[in-house]
Every structure is written in C-alpha cells, then in structure tokens.
Amino acid sequence: MNIVISNSSDEPIYEQIKRQIKNSILSGELKEGELMPSIRNLAKELMISVITTKRAYEDLEKEGYIVTRPGKGSYVAAQNKEFMREMRLKIVEEKLSEAVEAGKAIDLKLEEMEEMLRLLYE
C-alpha cells in the first residue's frame, strides 16, 4: 500500500490517509480480508504520529471499510457488492462532473464531449 502525505495540503493528514485507503479498497487494490499495516508501522513509515494513524483507522472502521481484531490487526472489511458499486458510481460521477465543468469553461459542445468520451471508452 502506497500512501503519499502532503504537508502543504489543506486536508488534514488523517483525512489524506483515510481517503487513500478508501480509494485503494474501492479500486480493488486492497482486497477483502487483506491485512492492513499496523497503526504503529504505518505511522513509522509515514513519519507521523501514531495518534494520527489511529484516527484514520478508527474512522475507516466506523464507516465499514476495515475491521479490527484485537491482537490480530486490522483487515479490509467484507463489502456489500451493491454498496461498492454505488461508491464507484459516485466516483465516476464526480470525475465526469469535473470534465463537464472543464469542457464548459472552453465552450466545448456536448457532441464534442460525447465524442471524446466515446473515443476514451473504446
């Protein structure tokens, strides 16, 4: 798992960790049941406080992305397939919204946008 922390970002470090782990789970990079790095090891690797890493893991557990087994560690939680599909659809919608905004900013016609999407999709 490769997590990149930006100290110049306005986003808190624990949120950066949480977001990147969520994205790894949603993309399938992290699989159901996969052992997560320990809180201490991740903090050491990222050169951050254990408290920061613990907060990210606690939030991920509350949101159902990971489960923690005392004495054994944290694992990627089993995900509801329909929930996973909805989350991935939300990501696609966000990216498409960004593309639409960028297209409108340069007066790109809908037909041109559709053609670009068609070419990229193939």
Automatic annotation (TrEMBL):
SMART domains: HTH_GNTR. GO terms for molecular function: DNA binding; DNA-binding transcription factor activity. It comes from the Bacteria. The keyword DNA-binding applies. Residues 11-79 form the HTH gntR-type domain. Keywords: DNA-binding, Transcription, Transcription regulation. Coiled coil: none annotated. Signal peptide: none annotated. It holds the Pfam family GntR. CDD domains: WHTH_GntR. This is Transcriptional regulator, GntR family. It comes from Thermoanaerobacterium thermosaccharolyticum (strain ATCC 7956 / DSM 571 / NCIMB 9385 / NCA 3814 / NCTC 13789 / WDCM 00135 / 2032).
